[in-house]
Amino acid sequence: MQLLQERRPLLIGHRGCSALAPENTIPSFEHALQAGVDLVEFDYRHSADGVPIVFHDDTLERTTDAIARWGGRRTRVSDHTAAEIQELDAGAWFAPRFAGTRVPTLLDALEFICGRGGTALIEHKSGEAQTLVELLRSTGFLNRVVVISFDWQFLRGVHALEPAIVIGALGDPLRLADGRTPQGLAVPLLQKLSPEWLDLMNDTGARVAVWHREITPEAVRLAHKRGLKVWIYTVDDATTATELIAMGVNGIITNDPSDLRLTIDAGVVRTHRLPRS
Ligand code: G3P
Ligand code: CA
After folding, report:
1. What is the per-residue pLDDT across 196-251, written as a single tens digit (0 to 9) for each?
2. Which terminus of the chain is less hemmed in, N or C, by CB atoms within 10 Å?
3. Tens of pLDDT, residues 96-135
4. Ligand 1 proximal residues by C-beta, below 6 Å
């Protein structure tokens, strides 16, 4: 994948452009593409009937009208079919002008993003590897996506089924490539990216370490030495982005790519904003 060869830091839209549009929806992806992102990040999980749909939380109430429509207090994505979930409004909670926005399926998201020449950063939240690999093969977008997960055992499954898929190990992980949890290890690991984490990431097939902001210049150097790129989530201020770029990180994942675009391009801190007229 050409993006992994770039020397400049990559700009990655988190849940699309979730500062300006309802997260994980087509309007959010459209904003992100208009902002000129290198990759559009989004989350997917399986519905009750096994359809991969684009959704972050394991319950529906924060970002849809599920409670207003169906009653109750909490309702899980995995208890509803894709058709039921797609009846919901996933935009009005964010702003009235997004009313009527639907929850996309993973296929909808890929067709929209990759169909417009974009690259998708697909974060797995639930569902087994086989379904994802088959879907990616059927779309022909295998080389236009990067697959990431906090579940490193899932990543190992994807890599075994289809080594051509570019994988990013998301950390710190919930589950390691051998199925253990980090808490189950004899020596507890710190959250910071460390040589131990890089060792454990080895058999996931990862080409990218996707880490939170617990990062050091030494860790970035070590990751690079092992041939890994380092992408950091979630960064919404220019100062932090500039510090991370100075450390040598290769990608910044942000909720507002339109705001960080100039910083990433210039590699400079904007010390002040122009007053609004
Ligand atoms: O891009 C990685 C980041 O999205 C992981 O956290 O909770 O926002 O999916 P979360
Ligand atoms: Ca995510």
Report:
1. 899 999 889 999 999 998 899 999 999 999 999 999 999 999 999 999 999 999 99
2. C
3. 999 999 999 999 999 999 999 999 999 999 999 999 999 9
4. 14, 41, 43, 56, 123, 170, 210, 233, 253
Contact 82, 88 (CB under 8 A): no
- Per the CB < 8 A criterion, the answer to whether 120 and 144 are in contact is yes
**Any idea of the CA torsion for 27, 245, 174, 192, to the nearest 10 degrees?**
-150
CA-proximal residue: ligand 1, atom 1 (nearest): 233
Q: Provide the phi-psi class of 39: left if phi over 0, else alpha when psi is between -120 and 50, else beta.
A: beta
Ligand 1 center–CA 276 separation, angstroms? 32
Closest CA to 171 of 243, 230, 221: 230
Give the pairing type, strands 166-171 and 208-211.
Answer: parallel
Ligand nearest to the CA of 255: 1
CA distance 20 to 15: 11
Domains, the chain, with CATH or none: 2-58+103-271 (3.20.20.190)
Pair 29, 108: CB distance under 8 Å = no
Phi, psi dihedrals of residue 189, rounded to the nearest 5°: -95, 145
10-13 and 52-54 beta bridge pairing: unpaired
Angle (CA) 90 95 101, round 5°: 30
Cα 118–chain centre separation: 14
Hey, how many other C-beta atoms are within 10 angstroms of the C-beta on 74?
A: 13
Give the amino acid at 108: D
